[in-house]
Amino acid sequence: MMKIQLKRIDNDYHFELKNERGHVTYIDSKAQVGGHDLAPSPMEYVLMGVAGCSAIDVISILKKQRQEITDYRAEVEGNRVKIDDATPFKNITITIYLEGEIAPEKAQRAAQLSFEKYCSVSKTVEPTATIEYKVVVNNKEV
């Protein structure tokens, strides 16, 4: 079981969150909805979770294959759709940028395994959002 504690910081929507190991992060909402924009929103954290989860998978897989990664970056975009009073993600697109001595086909396969098999965050949002990904190795799209 995983457990998070949330504590309100101000009189609006700024919160501190802490996991069981003591790591702390913050959330807030945008000024348009009454927040102070002091931290990412919960939905931005969902996109960050997709990026981080897949990064751990891809790097782990490529390390096992003895690929030399000198740089890893990712960009994630989420398109939302209004359903009743909520606006969940409908599409999430992630572009993974890798540099180093990396076989492009191995990078593509690592991303495929992450999104289709290993990434728990992606699997959590998959029932409501389509996740698409692109892999770029040494400035060339795979």
Write the layout of secondary structure elements.
Elements: E1 4-8, E2 15-19, E3 24-27, H1 42-64, E4 68-80, E5 89-101, H2 104-118, H3 120-125, E6 130-137, E7 140-141
Parallel strand pairs: 5-6
Antiparallel strand pairs: 1-2, 2-3, 4-5, 6-7
Describe it for me?
The chain has 142 residues and is an alpha+beta fold. The chain folds into two domains: 4-33, no CATH class; 42-141, GMP Synthetase, Chain A, domain 3 (2-Layer Sandwich), CATH 3.30.300.20. It is 31% helix and 35% strand. It has three helices and seven strands; from the N terminus they run βββαββααββ. The chain has helices at 42-64, 104-118, 120-125; strands spanning 4-8, 15-19, 24-27, 68-80, 89-101, 130-137, 140-141. The strands form two sheets. Strands 4-5-6-7 form a four-stranded mixed beta sheet, covered by helices on one side. Strands 1-2-3 form a three-stranded antiparallel beta sheet, with no helix packed on it. Helix 1 crosses helix 2. The mean pLDDT is 97.
CATH topology of the largest domain: GMP Synthetase, Chain A, domain 3
Give the low-pLDDT segments.
none
SS-derived structural category:
alpha+beta
How many domains? The number is 2
| The CATH architecture of the largest domain | 2-Layer Sandwich
Number of strands: 7
Portion of residues within helices: 25-40%
Beta-strand content estimate = 35-45%
Tell me the distance between the termini. Answer: 38 Å
Rg? 17 Å
Sketch the topology as an H/E string, one letter per element: EEEHEEHHEE
Strands of the biggest beta sheet: in what spatial order?
A: 4-5-6-7
With helices defined by DSSP (H or I, 4 residues minimum), what is the helix count? Answer: 3
Summed over residues and divided by their number, the pLDDT gives a mean of: 97
Question: What is the 3D form?
Answer: globular
* CATH class identity of the largest domain: Alpha Beta
CATH superfamily of the largest domain: K homology (KH) domain
Q: How can the largest sheet be summarized? A: 4 strands, mixed
